[in-house]
Each structure stands twice: as C-alpha cells, then as structure tokens.
Amino acid sequence: MTQHSIDARRRRFAGIAVAAGLALVATGVRAAPDIEVGLIAPMSGPWARQGQVMKSAAELAIASINQQGGIRSLGGAKLKLSVFDAGDSVEKAKNAAQRMVAEAPHLVAATGAYLSSFTLAVTEVTERAQLPMVTFSYSDQITARGFKYVFQTSATGDQQAEGSLPALLAMAEKSSGKRPKTIGIVMDNTAASLAFVKPIRATQLAKLGLTLVVDETFTPPLANATPLIQKVRAKRPDMLLLLPTAISDAKLLLEKMNEFGLGDGRLPTISNGAAILDPDLRANMNVAQLEGVMSVVANWGTSAQKDMSDEFRRRTGEPWATQHFLTTYGDMWIFKAALEAAGKADRASVANALRTMDLSNGPAKFFPGGRVKFDAAGRREGAGLLIVQWQNGVPVTVYPVKEAVAESRWPKR
Q1: Is a pLDDT exceeding 70 seen at residue 333?
Q2: Among the four residues 133, 210, 228, 345, which has the most C-beta atoms within 10 Å?
Q3: Among candidates 46, 32, 117, 139, which has minimal Cα distance to 77?
Q4: SS3 state of residue 205
C-alpha cells in the first residue's frame, strides 16, 4: 500500500469520525458525564502504605466497572476517582475532608479515612455536607452519633472484642489443653485500639476469668519498645494483646519481643487490625519472628474469595490482599450498586440507595458474612470478624471455620 493510499484512508476515517460526532450532536446524544467518587486516606506519613493500597484498590475496581459498561442506569456513565491525603494526624485528616467537600462539589460518595480517629473527624465534615461516607474503620463511635450519611462495613471494635476473645480462649484450650488465665495489653492510643480494648476491660476479663497483669498504652509512632516489652517479660502473661496501628510500631514491638525471648511462639500474641499482617512487615524483618502471631480483623482473604485473591496477586504483584484492599475494592462496587438503584448521580439519591440496599451478591462477596445491608445507625448487618495467623510466612484466615483457609496453631509456650 502506497503512502498516498494510507493518507487517503486516514482522511476517510477522520471524516467518518467527524461526521459521526456531528450526527450525535445533531440528535442530542452525548456521552454521559463522569460520576466522581472520593477516597480520603493517608498518602503520606507512617500510614501511607495502607493509603496507597487503598488507592490501588479503588483504581482497579473503577477500571473494571468502567470496562464493564459503567453505570448502566445512567447511560453508561463512568466512575472517576478523586484522592485526598488524610496525612498523619487528626487535624490533617479533618483539613483534608474540608478540602474534599470544598474542592470537589460534584462528589456523590466517598470512602476511606483508615484510622478510626481520622474517620471520626472526617465524618463530622462529610455529614455536614450530606456526603455519603462508607468506611471500614472500627470505632463504635463512628456510627453511634446519629449521623445519616455514614455507613460502616466492618464489625465495630466492640463487636470484634466480644466475639474474638472467647474464640481465642477456645482455640488455646483445644490446641494446648490449657485455658489462659492471665493476659497482657500493649496498645497505642488510637480510636480503633481504644474501641477494641474498652469492652475487654469493662466486662470481658471478669466474665472470662482472665487477670490483667500488663496494661500499657503508647502514642504512635513509637520511638523505643524496650520499656513496654520489659514489663511484658517481667509478668509473662499467658497471652498478649499487642495493638499497634502503624507497621513501623509493629516491627519494633515484635523485634523487641524476640530479643527478649518472647517471640517464636513462646508468648501467644494477638493483635487487632491489619498493620501486623502487612506485606511490608515481612519484607523488613525476619519472617521467622512473625510465625504464629495472630490478628483480629474485619476483612481478609477467605475460602470464598480464593479466585479474587489469585486475580489480585496477578494484577498487582502484591503477595496477598489486605483488608484495606478488599474493603476499598468492595466499596467501589457498593457505589456502583447504589448508583444503579438510584438512577441519579446526586448525594441524596445515593445515600437513600445505601440506606435501602440489601445485597447478597455483587459487592457482598467482598465482605465477611456475604451480605450488604445497613441498619438505621449505618452499621452493616451481620458484619463478622476474622482471625488471621502468620503461618509459613503468610497471614491466613483461621477463624471462623467456614471462612478459614487453614487450621489455627496455638503457639506452644
């Protein structure tokens, strides 16, 4: 084919495209405008790793939604993501939320915030703007303030504490033949950790016959773990609740435990949240020091999500999907379902669709319990907890049995 004929074909195709465009304008048919959704999470500071994972999850989900035709009830409109950095403090998170509602007036919904203390501040702002906010942060207070535009997909810290401690004691007794009698707590002072520990101190210890022998709280980021772990070594509880929310703090605490002869399964150690299960932790410390450590989480890879977990690894190169990825990915599909049901791209319609939503397919597969329905307070009904344990260098779900991908191993003292 000569260059002249190639140029002629290009001109013909260009002419056809222009004519088609003019025809669309003439008939009043235009592409549906993009629909803007938001993600507010730490993109800088000690929690930036989790924020970046959440951003990747949202981007992948939106790409998939758009490739599959977008929002069909709105003429195939595409989702568009706007990201806001919550930073490393409550004040910065609040400021980011204020920027979000001021600079993105066309947002129809948002997700994220990560730390419960951040989410509590962010949702004060989004509620005033009547912007629907979906979050997996744990604090009970998030949905205990009478807000109408906040939706919590996770089991609350209170629910996780009340459900996990009896399960952990049963796990210990089954594996070792002995029921723990003493317990230690080393925790940071973020809202999620406080929410998890509150019912344990208030009622669970007495109810379950546990004696609290270590009770220490620190402000993240942690500079020196030695004084905290020295107290644990001195009292040597039967089990330890180790509750950091920053990966760097988890690393310091676990390495110090191993230095003091408390690691490698010598002291059963249980956390809450995903910081202690993050791939970055494995990449930056001796993996043997993680073996047997457990964490109570609101979401993780389960037996029902195996295919999706395999797809996640293929598409991202990450070794496993954390709760930050799974929930944020699922939130984008919740937004799609709400928009499809609403048939309108405005905040009030989306909020109403979220309030009346009751799904057991689609987005539901990304959340433990397999159902997305919010109660009057905005809490997801039937939201369960999972217990995840480091086994052979990988954190795997071990509880409940119906969701588990491996059997639990209670560390031998």
Answers
A1: yes
A2: 133
A3: 32
A4: helix
Q: Is 177 helix (H, G, I), strand (E, B) or coil?
A: coil
3 state DSSP class of 295: strand
Enter the DSSP assignment of 411. Answer: P
**Crossing angle of the two packed helices 323-342 and 48-67, in degrees rounded to 10:** 40
List, for residues 38-68, the tens digit of each pLDDT value: 999 999 998 998 999 999 999 999 999 999 9
> What is the mean pLDDT of the segment spanning 16-31?
46
Dihedral class, residue 237 (left if φ above 0, else alpha if ψ from -120 to 50, else beta): beta
Task: With H, G, I as helix, E, B as strand and everything else as coil, classify residue 216.
Answer: strand
Q: What is the pTM of this model?
A: 0.85
Report the relative pairing of strands 150-152 and 211-218 from DSSP bridges: unpaired
Using the Cα atoms of residue 269, residue 275, residue 280 and residue 284 in order, give the sign of their dihedral: negative
Backbone angles phi, psi at 295, to 5 degrees: -150, 145
DSSP 8-state symbol, 45: S
* Overall average pLDDT of the 229-251 stretch: 96
Q: Are 35 and 71 in contact (CB under 8 A)?
A: yes
Question: What is the Cα–Cα distance from 142 to 155, expressed in whole angstroms?
Answer: 12
Alpha carbons within 13 angstroms on the beta-carbon side of residue 8 total 5
Burial of 80 (0-12, 13-18, 19+ CB in 10 A): middle
What mean pLDDT do residues 196-201 have? 94
Write down the mean pLDDT value for the chain.
90
**pLDDT, position 413:** 60
DSSP code of residue 78: P
Cβ neighbourhood burial of 279 (10 Å; 0-12, 13-18, 19+): middle
Q: For residue 221, is the peptide bond before it cis, meaning its omega torsion is within 30 degrees of 0? A: yes
Show the tokens assigned to 219.
Answer: 């402000």
Q: What does the pLDDT read at residue 25?
A: 43
**DSSP code string of 231-274:** HHHHH--SEEEEE-SSHHHHHHHHHHHHHTT-TTTTS-EEEESS
CA distance 52 to 25: 40
Q: Please tell me the number of Cα atoms within 13 Å of 85 on its side-chain side.
A: 9
When pLDDT is cut at 50, 70 and 90, the band that residue 207 belongs to is very high
> Do residues 109 and 333 make contact, with C-beta atoms less than 8 angstroms apart?
no
